Amino acid sequence: MATPARAGRAIDPVSPGLGRTKAFGARRSRQNHGDVVTTSEIQISALGVDDLEDAHGLSMALNWPYRLADWAFAHALGEGLALRHDGRLIGTGMRWNYGPDFATVGMIIVDGAYRGQRLGSRIVDGLLAGAGDRSVILNATLDGLELYRRRGFEGFDVTNQHQGIAGPLTAPDRAYRLEPATDTDWPAMTKLDKSAAGMPRARLLDALAKVGRASVLRGEDGGVRGYAVCREFGRGHVIGPVIAPNFEEAAALIAHAMAGLAGRFVRVNTSARSGLGEWLEAGGLVRVGSEEAMVRGSLPRISSQACIFALCSNSLG
């Protein structure tokens, strides 16, 4: 959970538009010097498409890197909740269901003028209620750790955010068959993704096929052995998901996906246990932040064929 008024929270700063920043600053000033708002005056409802510009404003106040297009991409794939006061959006949260057994949650923001009223708890509880019996996975900032622990979440990993200006990455010495994905590859990529993630993410892959470009690693039989997706996000590009059998092949896929991005801003979100950290740092993608990966319920069962080496995003998984 995040509150825009807290300085130093952002781990990927951008320069907010002046008009939006002034507007949110003025709202906080009026709220901080006005009457105390009671919880009953704040309504919770669905986050709609018409809310996305204001949601983008909340994330800009946090210096989060999301573009309006990034909000639209995430919103189209999930279900969102909105907190409103006097008709104004003051908080958001999103959930993405992956089949009947799993879901992820994220993009949880409360306007800093309203912090200290347990509004983040209202959003999280609403998202969890909508998840039903699904196990829920998220990446938690330090601000949200205790909230999630009180709701039965347990840590299972650490997600590191690496970013920087793309330079040459030293690919493994072994020669791999790496190619741009074709339209006919996406069904095999979706099948491999389900095996690696342990949950059905076909809608996510379908959406990525429309906005990103993918690299595939082929086996001796020509089949898809791994893949990486590169798409525009935030200040530049993000590489993920990256699905591969091992570190060397994941590194080869990332290097292939970064081809043509020299001098541009690139971000990769990867598990601390992936083994990619030092290699990414050597290529100029420094670690700028970490979040605790947590689950309420059971983790998906994944195959030994391949695993996730980089996330689509910390929210979507």
Automatic annotation (TrEMBL):
GO MF: acyltransferase activity, transferring groups other than amino-acyl groups
Database matches in Pfam families: Acetyltransf_1, Acetyltransf_18
Protein keywords: Transferase
The N-acetyltransferase domain, residue ranges: 42-174
SUPFAM superfamilies, per database record: Acyl-CoA N-acyltransferases (Nat)
This protein's name: N-acetyltransferase
Organism: Croceicoccus ponticola
